Amino acid sequence: MSRILVVCTGNVCRSPLGEGFLRAALADASDGTAPEVRSAGTAGWEGSGATELTIEAALERGVDIAAHRARLLTPDAVEDADLIVCMAEEHRRAVARIDPIALDRTFTIWELVRLLEDARPTGDLAERVAAAARARDGRSAFDPDVRDPLGDGLDGFREIAAELEDLSRRLARALSELPA
Questions:
Q1: DSSP state, 37?
Q2: Please, what sign has the CA dihedral across residues 140, 147, 114, 19?
Q3: What's the pLDDT score for residue 10?
Q4: Best exposed site among 9, 57, 91, 157 by fewest CB in 10 Å?
Q5: What pLDDT, on a 0 to 100 scale, did the predictor assign at position 178?
Q6: H or E segment and range at residue 106
Q7: 78 φ, ψ to 5°?
Q8: CATH topology for 3-175?
Q9: In the prediction, which pLDDT does 179 show?
Q10: Which residues contact 100 (CB under 8 A, 6 or more apart)?
Q11: Which residues pair with 4 in a beta bridge?
C-alpha cells in the first residue's frame, strides 16, 4: 500500500487538517485502494492532540480529527513515505535535512497541486510523483505556503481548513486513477 505523509511544524494544526481532508478526498476519489495518509511535525508536539480550534474547523467541514495525536518527523517516517506533502517550504527543507534523496517525492501542497494539474500525469502514485518531480521548475519558493493559524481565532482556522479541503480535493483528483 502507498503511503502519504503530510508535514507541518507542530503537527497540531495544519498537518492534521491536511491529513484528515486528504484521507477523506482520496477515499472519495479512489476505487477502494486509497493510499494511507499520516502526518508529522518538524517540531512535533509528540502525543498532543490537534488544537480545539483545529478540531472544530475540521468538524464543520465533515472531518473528525479528534483522535489525532502529534508525531515528530523522523527518518523512518520520511523513508516509509511514497509522497511527502508539506504545508510550507520550510518543511520541505526540513525533510531534505533528514534525507536529501527524499526531495524527489517531497513537495509543498501548493507546488504539488500546480505541477500535477499542469502535467496531468497518468499511472500509479509513484509514476505521478515522479512526473511531478520531473516537471518541477524550481519555482516552489514562489508557490504559496499554507499559513500557520496557531494563535488565530476560529475564523483563522476556518480559513485554513477551507484552503486545505480545496487543495486536498484537487490533489486527490490529480493522484486518482479515476477520471476527474
A1: E
A2: positive
A3: 95
A4: 9
A5: 47
A6: strand 106-108
A7: -65, -45
A8: Rossmann fold (3.40.50)
A9: 44
A10: none
A11: 37, 83
Beta bridge partners of 52: none
Other Cβ atoms less than 10 A from the Cβ of 133: the count is: 15
Could you tell me the three cell numbers for 53?
480550534
HSE-CB of 62 using CA atoms within 13 angstroms: 7
Domain ranges of the chain: 3-175
Which residues of the chain, if any, have pLDDT below 50?
178-180
CA 49 vs CA 36, 67, 88, 95, 179: distances in Å = 20, 7, 21, 23, 36
**Cell numbers 478540531: residue:** 55
> How far is CA 146 from its chain centroid?
10
CA atoms within 13 A on the CB side of 169: 7
Cα dihedral across residues 2, 112, 47, 52: positive or negative: negative
| Main-chain phi, psi angles of 167, to 5 degrees | -60, -40
| Cα–Cα distance measured from residue 155 to residue 141, given in angstroms and rounded to the nearest whole number | 27
Which amino acid, residue 111? E
